[in-house]
Amino acid sequence: MIIGTAGHIDHGKTSLVRALTGVDGDRLKEEKARGITIDLGFAYLPLDEGFTLGFVDVPGHERFVHTMAAGASGIDIALLVVAADDGVMPQTLEHLAILDLLRIGRGMVALTKSDLVPPERLAEVTAQIREATAGTMLEKADILPVSSTTGTGVDALRDRLAVEARALGERRADGRFRLAVDRVFTLPGIGVVVTGTVLSGTVQVKDQVMLSPSGLTARVRSLHAQNRQVETGRAGDRCALNLAGDGIAKDAIQRGDMLVDPLLHAPTDRIDASLHILASEPKPVGAWFPARLHHGAADVGVRVVPLEGEQLLPGRTADVQLVLSQPIAAAALDRFVLRDVSARRTIGGGRFLDLRAPSRQRRTPERQAQRAALAIDDPRKALAALLDAPPFTWDVLAFARDRALAAAVLDDTVTALAPLVLDTGDERVAIDRAHWQGFADALVERLETFHAANPDVQGMGREKLRLALRPRLSPAAFALALQHEDVARRVVRDGAFVRLASHTLQLSPDRVAAWRAVEPLLGGEVRFRPPRVRDIAAVVGRPEAEVRQLMKSAARVGLVDEVAHDHFFLRATVHEMLLIAADVASHAADGRFTAAQFRDRLDNGRKVAIQILEFFDRQGVTLNHGTLRRIQARYLDLFGSAPA
């Protein structure tokens, strides 16, 4: 359980923590010399039954308020410190605003230096505090007079904090592991150590973790929680982790990094969020307003784009898009604080909604409905709302990752909602059952319309069909949708085309006989270098134009594909060549291969190999980058089904 102090400089926060715990939170030489807290200080108070209170002592000086924001993001209980002789001061108000923006829901106020003033002054400052906290999360917080010098009220405050902590209980630890890194250092004989508060989940010795946004992987060699060596750290614990791994060094890890379960590594630099602007702000926030964003221990530049109206007025809350100067690791519904670019004042704050916000069409009704759904705290209700809003589909793996949900929570959520799920491996696309039925019916209707307008065409291009339907599925999910029983019983995948099962093209009897004479010439050992139309015509003794027409007809019914002008390959051979290209890519560096590598596998000459690859380029199954190509794995089945 983490308790965070907050308040104006020299109001006795560090002295109070020392009186409560016996530990001096000031750990830096400069802090000792100047008598102020510059960086986050930590102290621990063991209670009975193994329960420990952790104290985060944050700096009060205006120059170090950004550090205060970093400390406050991980605390459970706020302890606002106000000196009885000074009363409420500027940093008191700013710290209070930050605590309120971060929604620190539990807390109390310590009225320090109470031994230095008469009772009338205590009453006056108490009234000031009540006025300052009105309308905030600490509006009804207890105010306890204390003196770190004489010890008056310290025991009562300690007991009150213990009661509050026990009432709050431990944080739920069923999410995936996240820790906000606020310190990194090395110890002789130990190595690199990072410290921070566990925001969700658990971590154990020997776990594999990842530093985000850098993507460095590490292994947890040892672990301390609340200043004691342990095997497991849980949500709410103040932890120090000794890390090991390739590239793990002090200068490779930054304050503001997030240590996460590897499945959560997905940095973002464009976020839709709900933002509240403090009523004290002198001006509204307009488009591309520059600011500093504080999230966890991260501090990055940001531009604010209002999504409701042209500007956001002081005292109001609205959706905005945050365009960051560099990626951060975050989770949906995380709280954040905005400060001005000169770091002199707090502007506002709020919470993240969509970590994968689009750069275009940000204000559409569809996006508004999605943000409203994403703002729902309960994952089951949020996902249900997403599936009931355009485009009526959502990747539940991305949903769980961005909310740091454990696998069991995701499974329970999906089971309860019972949508249709298309699992491609990289994504699990969920569609509400009613909307799925509408999608399947629309697919059939689209094909019926196409066949009526194009009765002599094999079918509709698969990619063209995918782009014409709503919801617009990814290519991999669309391929699975075509195989679902609701669709497959009515629809046939025919190479790069899709047609109704009832739609058939057949060669005339005379062309069937002619095809039987031609087909053997395209297969066997010469299948990777089949003869062209003129050569076929010479062998079978028919006019070249007649053979060309025969081959065009065979292509329409899916027997062959015209890879280059007058150069036709059997459909099965095209599929075989595609699998060979995929195998070449799998053995190539970065999955990129050359035409020469492909040619050597087919042994059919450079010119023909390049024509085949250019055909694959046109179909979208390969992507050409100069002299290198890579495979689009989601299209590997494009030529895999034989025509009916």
Automatic annotation (TrEMBL):
It comes from the Bacteria. Residues 1-168 form the Tr-type G domain. It is found in: Cytoplasm. Its main location: cytoplasm. GO terms for molecular function: translation elongation factor activity. Keywords: Cytoplasm, Elongation factor, GTP-binding, Nucleotide-binding, Protein biosynthesis. Pfam families: Beta-barrel_SelB (PF25461), GTP_EFTU (PF00009), GTP_EFTU_D2 (PF03144), WHD_2nd_SelB (PF09106), WHD_2nd_SelB_bact (PF21214), WHD_3rd_SelB (PF09107). The keyword Protein biosynthesis applies. InterPro entries: Beta-barrel_SelB (IPR057335), EF-Tu_GTPase (IPR050055), EFTu-like_2 (IPR004161), Elong_fac_SelB-wing-hlx_typ-2 (IPR015190), G_TR_CS (IPR031157), P-loop_NTPase (IPR027417), SelB_WHD4 (IPR015191), T_Tr_GTP-bd_dom (IPR000795). CDD domains: SelB, SelB_II, selB_III. Translation factor necessary for the incorporation of selenocysteine into proteins. It probably replaces EF-Tu for the insertion of selenocysteine directed by the UGA codon. SelB binds GTP and GDP. This is Selenocysteine-specific elongation factor. It comes from Luteibacter jiangsuensis.
